[in-house]
């Protein structure tokens, strides 16, 4: 059981499923390309440029300052569903698989999880809201650039791991490292394996590159959601591919992180899977999700 006081519990019998367990993960998307196949995508240059800027600009100081600013939650007051509607006009340019409107991506992943885990309503709601932090694009939220909203995340304040996407870029015979242009790269306080952290310190104490994941986590937590810690962990780390997919940075985790990691790995399959062309009838499923929102969140949230 992974629950703390005031939070809805994860059922004892809820086990994160393996990809092979009753859920077939397709190997290619609607365009016949492999998921996250950055080389194959026609949008490569936009994707690569977003990561170039991300690697150069996401310093320890930038993340600390930005996190403090958004922790004030003084940008807007709106319900979860209003945030979904606000987000719906955006397309995530860092993501070569995603051409669908955001509301479709949110509902597709939620509905796919609902099918496989009918009794875990907290997972359905987690999927529905996992990307809502992308409201950071909106002028009300400071119109943050792509590199500070979307894309994979990684720790700052310690050395950049080789598993980070675009860590190394090949230009014919040349190898390029965008991280070399990040001021932290040459700072001895930040460029060792542990940097400012200690072994097993827990991800709670680690700063990750700033983006929609951490922001939505902050919003959910500060507004008193009753979602379980597995849900908050999933929202916060769903773009932390170096950890949940590549297995890097494991030495920063504590026991609770290791427990919750299974859920973010389970969730990830649905996040990727749902980036397909199955169209969900919004009006048909809306009452169900409205009821979940009502159960786990206040009517209006501070953002
Ligand atoms: Fe996301
Ligand atoms: Fe997503």
Automatic annotation (TrEMBL):
Signal peptide: none annotated. Fe cation binds at residues 105, 130-131, 212, 238, 271. Its cofactor is Fe cation. The keyword Metal-binding applies. It is found in: Cytoplasm. Its EC number is 1.13.99.1. Keywords: Ascorbate biosynthesis, Cytoplasm, Iron, Metal-binding, Oxidoreductase. GO terms for cellular component: cytoplasm. InterPro entries: Inositol_oxygenase. Substrate binds at residues 36, 92-94, 134, 151-152, 238-239. Coiled coil: none annotated. The keyword Iron applies. It catalyses: myo-inositol + O2 = D-glucuronate + H2O + H(+). One of its GO terms (molecular function) is iron ion binding. Its main location: cytoplasm. GO terms for biological process: inositol catabolic process; L-ascorbic acid biosynthetic process. Belongs to the myo-inositol oxygenase family. This is Inositol oxygenase. It comes from Quercus suber (Cork oak).
């Amino acid at each position: 059981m992974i629950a703390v006081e005031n939070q809805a519990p994860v059922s004892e019998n809820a086990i994160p499923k393996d990809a092979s367990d009753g859920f077939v993960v397709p190997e290619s998307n609607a365009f016949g390309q492999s998921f996250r196949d950055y080389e194959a995508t026609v949008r490569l240059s936009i994707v690569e440029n977003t990561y170039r800027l991300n690697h150069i600009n996401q310093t320890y100081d930038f993340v600390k300052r930005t996190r403090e600013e958004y922790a004030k939650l003084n940008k807007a007051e709106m319900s979860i569903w209003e945030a979904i509607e606000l987000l719906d006009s955006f397309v995530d340019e860092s993501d070569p698989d995603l051409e669908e409107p955001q509301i479709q991506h949110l509902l597709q992943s939620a509905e796919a999880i609902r099918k496989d885990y009918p009794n875990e309503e907290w997972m359905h709601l987690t999927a529905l809201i996992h990307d809502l932090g992308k409201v950071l694009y909106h002028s009300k939220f400071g119109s943050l650039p792509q590199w500070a909203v979307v894309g994979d995340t990684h720790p700052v304040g310690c050395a950049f791991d080789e598993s980070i996407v675009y860590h190394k870029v090949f230009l014919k015979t040349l190898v390029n490292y965008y991280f070399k242009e990040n001021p932290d790269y040459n700072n001895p306080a930040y460029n060792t394996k542990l940097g400012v952290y200690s072994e097993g310190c827990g991800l709670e104490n680690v700063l990750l590159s700033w983006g929609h994941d951490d922001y939505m986590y902050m919003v959910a937590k500060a507004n008193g959601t009753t979602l379980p810690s597995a849900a908050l962990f999933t929202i916060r780390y769903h773009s932390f591919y170096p950890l949940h997919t590549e297995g890097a940075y494991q030495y920063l985790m504590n026991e609770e992180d290791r427990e919750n990691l299974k859920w973010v790995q389970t969730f990830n399959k649905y996040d990727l899977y749902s980036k397909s062309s199955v169209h969900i009838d919004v009006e048909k499923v809306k009452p169900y999700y409205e009821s979940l929102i009502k159960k786990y969140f206040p009517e209006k949230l501070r953002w």
